[in-house]
Design goal:
- The chain is of the alpha+beta class.
- The chain has a single domain, classed as Alpha-Beta Plaits (2-Layer Sandwich).
- 21% of the residues lie in helices and 23% in strands.
- The strands form 2 sheets. Strands 1-4 form a two-stranded antiparallel ribbon. Strands 2-3 form a two-stranded antiparallel ribbon.
- A hairpin with a 5-residue loop joins strand 2 and strand 3.
- It binds iron/sulfur cluster (SF4).
- Iron/sulfur cluster (SF4) binds next to helix 1.
């Protein structure tokens, strides 16, 4: 079985927009964490499903999360 068609989603946080509201860390707790500056950082692929990442992106009041599917 080949899994080559499965996209591996990841997320990028625009730190010009992020205000550290932590909505994303509630929606996808393993995929996002606030850094020392109080801004969200994506923790790496495989820590959240695409649906969880989408929920995090939709929950962000600043629209700071961009989901990339490769
Ligand atoms: S929900 Fe948006 S504004 Fe809030 S911490 Fe996450 S990326 Fe930043």
């Amino acid at each position: 079985m080949s899994d080559q068609h499965a996209a591996v989603p990841r997320a990028e946080v625009d730190h010009h927009l992020c205000m550290g509201t932590s909505m994303c860390t509630q929606a996808a707790a393993r995929a996002f964490r606030l850094n020392q500056d109080g801004q969200a950082e994506f923790q790496g692929v495989g820590l959240a499903t695409l649906d969880e990442l989408r929920e995090a992106a939709m929950s962000c009041p600043m629209a700071a999360i961009n989901i990339v599917e490769e």
